Amino acid sequence: MTNRLDGRIAAVTGAASGNGRAIAEKLLADGATLVAIDLNPDALASVFGDRPEVLQVQADVADEASVKAGMAKIAEAFGRLDILVNNAGIVKFGTFEELSRAEWDQVFAVNSTGPFLVSREAYGLLRAGDGDHTRAIVNITSVEAHIVISSSGHPQIHYNASKGALLQLTRALAVEAASSGIRVNAVAPGFIETPFTAEALGKEEVRNWLLERTPMGRIGKPEDVANGVAFLASDDASWVTGTTLFVDGGWTIY
Ligand code: NAP
């Protein structure tokens, strides 16, 4: 816990579960006021209750009208935004030959188009942000944007491709946003214990396979991801943009 985000307004998508929830709590602990965005308002309410430092916003990141309505609530409440974390994401498994167009589109809609829409609609608010500090977008990609772990028995070409697209969105937007004092970076988690991975990690053979290949010898926690995000969101990273911080226990070393 630090005070390095005191006074900052931070929005996190997918804030009601897993990595997003831990990111939200970490940004709050470091002093930020939080906008918690998620699909399900009941899930948001059950996680954040009536905490005054949290604005709960129901929005579907894949739906343009819903994103616009969500950003209008932030504009009305604060008139600006300092930190945006594009965390909401979905995973689907299936072999290439069985992959339907509908499922491909669904994964891209949430994992790639979602961060595009949210960032674009938040951009004016970020430009209006606290000029004493750099503003930051942090995109949650995955080691799967860089390597392919289908040997775990879970082929997911659409997920790989959608996270690869988000990686390049991060790098390209970093160039365009730099002159506005907005930094754009990614955190690439390895396997983290969340509802997202519960099924795979519930299988002992998968868990053992992962542990054998992770130099740090443990599965990641959402708090590990949150600590990386908080660094990139803060002025501690004020000259860091367009890069990826791997939070993977060393998985991608070899
Ligand atoms: P999670 O526990 O399933 O949480 C994802 C949250 O995002 C849920 O609250 C979900 O709501 C919400 N969400 C899904 N679609 C949305 C949409 N269209 N609009 C708004 N919110 C939406 O997953 P997680 O493990 O924390 O994953 C979070 C991010 O980390 C994802 O981008 C994922 O790709 C990335 N990641 C995870 C791991 C891992 O091992 N867990 C590894 C690498 C990267 P519902 O529950 O209502 O659907």
UniProtKB/TrEMBL annotation:
SUPFAM superfamilies tied to this protein: NAD(P)-binding Rossmann-fold domains
GO molecular function: oxidoreductase activity
Oxidoreductase found in the keyword field: yes
Record's keyword terms, sorted: Oxidoreductase
Listed InterPro entries: NAD(P)-bd_dom_sf (IPR036291), SDR_DHRS6-like (IPR051122), SDR_fam (IPR002347)
Alphabetized NCBIfam families for the sequence: PRK07231.1 (NF005559)
Family membership: Belongs to the short-chain dehydrogenases/reductases (SDR) family.
Protein name: NAD(P)-dependent dehydrogenase (Short-subunit alcohol dehydrogenase family)
